[in-house]
Write a structure and sequence with these properties.
7-stranded antiparallel β-sheet; globular
C-alpha cells in the first residue's frame, strides 16, 4: 500500500464513480481497478467527506468496503452489507496501535473482523479463506484481502 486516501470496493459498472454514495466521500476518483463485476476506486481525501460504506452497500445492493490507507503500512476501514451489517477492518493492526492509536476502534478484535469478512464474502458470492483473511489483516494489504476472498479476474486500470 503506497497510497494514502480512501479505497472503496463495490460492485458496479463504469457509472459507480458517479454514484451519490461515492460522491459522499467528497474527493476526486483518482484511480479505478476492475475485478469482474467489482470496482476498486481510489478517492483523494479532502477532509470534507462523509464516508458511509453502509450507504454505498445499500445503493449498490451488494456488500462494499471502504478503507482509509493511513500510510504505506497500515489502513483502517469498514465493510458493510445491504442488509445493514457493518464491521471494522484494520490492516497492520500493530502499526496502527503504535502510530495511529486514535484510529483503532476501541472494541476491535481481528478474530471478529476475520469472521465478518468471511460472512461478507459469502453474501457477495465470494469464497473467503479465513486463514488468508487473517494474514491479510495482520500483515498484508488490500490485494492480499482481495485474493483471500476470491476476488480474481482483475482487468486492470480503467
Amino acid at each position: 500500500m503506497d497510497y494514502v486516501g480512501w479505497v472503496v470496493l463495490a460492485r458496479g459498472d463504469s457509472e459507480l464513480r458517479r454514484a451519490p454514495a461515492v460522491a459522499a466521500f467528497a474527493g476526486a476518483v483518482g484511480g479505478e481497478r476492475v475485478f469482474g463485476t467489482w470496482r476498486e476506486l481510489r478517492i483523494a481525501d479532502t477532509g470534507a467527506g462523509d464516508a458511509d460504506v453502509l450507504a454505498l452497500a445499500r445503493a449498490t445492493g451488494a456488500p462494499a468496503l471502504a478503507v482509509y490507507v493511513v500510510d504505506g503500512l497500515c489502513a483502517v476501514g469498514e465493510g458493510a452489507t445491504p442488509g445493514g451489517t457493518a464491521f471494522d477492518l484494520v490492516f497492520g493492526e500493530e502499526r496502527v496501535a503504535e502510530e495511529y492509536a486514535a484510529a483503532l476502534p476501541d472494541d476491535y478484535r481481528r478474530a471478529d473482523a476475520v469472521a465478518a469478512v468471511t460472512a461478507w464474502a459469502a453474501e457477495a458470492d465470494l469464497a473467503a479463506v479465513p486463514d488468508a483473511v487473517d494474514r491479510a489483516l495482520a500483515r498484508g494489504g488490500l490485494d492480499d484481502l482481495y485474493r483471500a476472498v476470491g476476488l480474481t479476474g482483475r482487468a486492470g486500470p480503467h
